[in-house]
Amino acid sequence: MSILLLIEDDNDLRGTLKELLQQEGYEIQEATSVDQAMTCLQTSQPQLVLLDIMLPGGKNGFDFLESIRKDPKTKDLPVIILSNLDSEKTVAEKIGIQGYFVKANTPLNTIVSAVKETVKK
Amino acid sequence: MEPSRPALHPHHTPSLFLAILSVPLLLVLCYGWYIWRSNLAVDGALLFSLLAITIYLYEQNTQVHAEKKVCIQDYKNLEHKFAVLIEHSNDAIVLIDKEGTTTYASASIKPILGYSPEEFIGTSPLQFIHPDDIDTAKKNLLSLIHHPGKTIIGTNRIKHRDESWRWIEGVATNFLDDPTIDAVVINFRDVTDRHLAQAQLEESEEKYETIFNLVPEVIYSISAPDGKFVTLNPAFESITGWKRDEWIGKPFLELVHPDDQASAKEQFFKGLSGDPIQRFQLRIRTKAGTYRVGEFSSVPYKNENGIVGKLGTARDITKEKELDNAKDEFLAIAAHQLRTPLSSMRWDTELLLRDTRDDHVKTVLERVNGRAQKMAKLVNDLLSVSALTQGTVEEHLQIADVKTALEPLIEQIKSLSDQKHLTLHTPFSTQEALVRVDPQYFPTILENLLSNAINYTPDGGDIYIQITTTSSEVQICVQDTGIGISPEDQPHVFEKFYRGHNANTLSAQGSGLGLFVVRSFVKRWGGDVALESTLGKGSTFCIHLPIAKGSTV
């Protein structure tokens, strides 16, 4: 079973996404901050990261993204950004991501398709 | 005109001499006749000698007389030459005696001051001088008269015969101890035009100085090709904290933020090739080490050697940029805060919709989901409008393929269009259709057209999406079989908050911002939007954009 790391600080959104993806047959690991996510990565190897940008604790999604891209163990780890900021797409693409969706504008079905496509590869 | 002549002239002497000589000659001839009659030899020799002497003296006299005649003629010629030169010179000459009275004035005084020479002679040369200048002139003249050989140059206002004041520049030299001249010689000319030009020049220089010194923008000039500062105005000091002489002679690039230096260099050389006014933004380092943002306007600077540098102004827009950034930040946070509960609401309804078999539940959930989507769209529109009405927005244009941008959007509207049983027709070819657009907003404007088509088309209708390319442009058309737009509404639909009269028939509840956003952005990218519509039949919206050369990023 594929493992997905879900980094989202809003409880409702995280809950809904977890339920959805478990229904689709994925194992979900959750984190609500960058530090928590990094700790997670030390003990497991997810096939995909679903990443929010605005996160608490002084570090945002880009800090996480830059960290994992620098580490040779995780530099090719696929990441899909789920954010409510639309101004960061170009910046994110430059660093290297497998998808960027504005949550409020994206139906769940689109997210499921994107996850299925990326994990399959 | 004959000049006045001095007194003595060897005019009458030759004839008098001849007259005197004729008397002894007559006596000699009488005596000679007597000797010849009396045959006296000694008297004959004496007579002969006397005759010889007389002839000799006569010849001498003739010679002297002839030489004198040549001399006189030469003198006459020379006098005439000088008379002509003086009278035809543009400068006028005036002679003043040791009492300070004018004894001579050349003819040129008439064209310069309107007076005839006679009106000047016998009077004081100071009589026509401007009251403000007269004291200095009097002092100068007095000093001059008492110092033989001295020269004074001065400019005074002198009254012309027609009552106007002329600026007269004069060179006065004391020749009183030269017996041939015995006067103070003043040589003068009219410099009124030159004086006026000078005054105007000084006035405009003063104006320029004022602007240069007081304006709160930086005024600078840079020499080419070395790029060194040549001039900087006081505003430079108050804005950057540097003293001007810390930077004059130094290369301007050293003041520019390292990330902006490449662009600054490019602008500098581009302007040298003769481009007209250039406008660009650069970050400049202050003495404190911080950076301020300047909006620059620069032009090439030319002199007789060609283009020798750049001249420009820079306005400090640091505050404006900070304000823009603060506004962006606020909006981002506001958008994020609004979008978070909206996404949650939307996704929860979608989660339930995946499982529910109950039609009633399904219907209600779809309604809630629909409204969440509409609210999300409203947030999108507000962000777009805010971006459009922003001041100095830098364009981040990139090349994009239309089909690539459309496909995910069509995916997204599928669920909504399925709900209404609308058929989507997307006859896309595999050919690329490249346009140069802002990647952040291109999906938004396409989405606006698509969602309009869906919202304003009743159940069972059709939506056609077409991409056409010509050699110069790309056309994206969205056609629907919806309620259409009346001729009265058509000219207004692109206005902010305008909604057609029939817009609420399908309870579409739009914001009135969608088309405004579409047209504003498309126009910014060099294109336009066209509308064709028939009430009750449907509408077609076509976006035209110039075709982009190159490839997608």
TrEMBL record, chain A:
Domain spans labelled Response regulatory: 3-118
Instruction: Name the source's superkingdom.
Output: Bacteria
Keyword Chaperone part of the UniProt annotation: no
CDD domains this protein is in?
REC (cd00156)
**Which Pfam families does the UniProt record give?**
Response_reg
**4-aspartylphosphate sites (modified residues):** D52
Q: Which UniProt keywords apply?
A: Phosphoprotein
Biological processes, Gene Ontology terms: phosphorelay signal transduction system
Q: Which PANTHER family match?
A: RESPONSE REGULATORY DOMAIN-CONTAINING PROTEIN, STRESS RESPONSE REGULATOR PROTEIN 1
Name it.
Response regulatory domain-containing protein
The source organism is: Candidatus Cerribacteria bacterium 'Amazon FNV 2010 28 9'
**Phylogenetic placement of the source organism:** Bacteria, Candidatus Cerribacteria
TrEMBL record, chain B:
What chemistry does it catalyse, as a reaction equation? ATP + protein L-histidine = ADP + protein N-phospho-L-histidine
Give every PAS domain span.
78-148, 204-275
In terms of one coarse class, where is the protein primarily found? membrane
- For this protein, the parts annotated as crossing the membrane are 15-33, 40-58
Stretches assigned to the Histidine kinase domain? 333-549
**Domain PAC spans what residues?**
278-329
Q: How does it sit in the membrane?
A: Multi-pass membrane protein
Q: Name one Pfam family in it.
A: PAS
Show the CDD domains listed in the entry. Answer: HisKA (cd00082), PAS (cd00130)
**Compartments where located:** Membrane
- Gene3D superfamilies from the xrefs? 1.10.287.130, Histidine kinase-like ATPase, C-terminal domain (3.30.565.10), PAS domain (3.30.450.20)
Listed NCBIfam families: sensory_box (TIGR00229)
- Protein name per the record: histidine kinase
Q: Which organism is it from?
A: Candidatus Cerribacteria bacterium 'Amazon FNV 2010 28 9'
Task: Give the classification, highest ranks.
Answer: Bacteria, Candidatus Cerribacteria
